[in-house]
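Troubleshooting entry. The earlier prediction with phosphoenolpyruvate gave an output that would not parse, so I re-checked the input for stray whitespace and re-submitted. Clean input:
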Amino acid sequence: MYLASVVTNNTINLRSVVDGLAQVQRPLLISGPCSAESEEQVVNTAKELAKRGVHILRAGIWKPRTRPNGFEGKGSVALQWMVKAREASGLPIATEVANAQHVEACLNAGVDVLWIGARTSVSPFAVQEIADALKGTNVPIFVKNPMHADLSLWMGAIERVRSTVEGPVWAIHRGFSQYGQKEYRNAPMWEIAIGLKMAMPEVPIICDPSHIAGNRSLLHPVAQKAMDLGMDGLMLETHPDPQNALSDANQQLTPAAFGDLIESLTIRSASAPKISSADLTALRLQMDSIDEQFIELLHARMDLARQIGLHKWEKGMTILQMERWKEVFDTREKWATRAGLSPEFIQNFLEQVHKESIRVQNEEMTSKISRS
Ligand code: PEP
Ligand code: MN
């Protein structure tokens, strides 16, 4: 299916890709290590990436980690490594800022592009502090989506930055955190990126498959999907020795593997007519994404059913517990009615779900019995 019209507006420029003034074709490519680890690592990666068509070099200098005591980045000293990498490769340089001091250090060092990370864009206070520190500058800024799936919060962060800076402000879609079992490190929830495009059609969006996928094997399908949706660019993490990276080792690629991945993508022209919020394609895309999440939720539910099956087996209980089943029906029926769904529909649906739960519980018990 041809989908490229959903997102793009065909205007890369990004201040003529940070004043290299070259005409850049979609997709804009940003790549480099998750974290700057040494001068040699940053400079070598930059040189390798410049040979493979990358437009902007990225590296994290201050790393916001979810838990303390992880590698928290090399700090300001690494800014000079980035500057050297720019000299060696000719690539403009980008890094993440999380507060006003970071912004000041980057502006002093002459960093070309800044981005606001997902752990920062959740906080209007933090975003405002950064926006204030950037006041009147024309450095291009990328705003990553906040960790959790809140479109307004993402839009708010973009608006705060746009109200103080004079340069271009772009969005980065890096997926949303989800609790429990999952295929992706961060659920893509493509419908939110599409929602942003509908609400702010003038804001270009690039996709960060590295942080969505969390592992190398999923990078290609995520990057391809982003291209099929017509996103304007890709941010992908690369490292000379990914296995031994100090952060995000599972998701980084060597520059050579990055080159292969980009070569293997099918990039369809993005010049098809733009679609509006009422367009069938956009609505179907959102529906696809919701169905995908819906199936993931059913998968998580069946995993719980298996665990319950195991518990029943250990306690010598029967699989079908009528009282519990009645309670399930009653509560769900109430929830469904509140959501405007008919009781018949939800009953039929629950019966099917229940049938599948019993099947997986049986499977679990049978395998337990055959092993015991
Ligand atoms: C990063 O780009 O290295 C990073 C920390 O990303 P995010 O803010 O999306 O987690
Ligand atoms: Mn990372």
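This one parsed fine. The chain has a mean pLDDT of 89.
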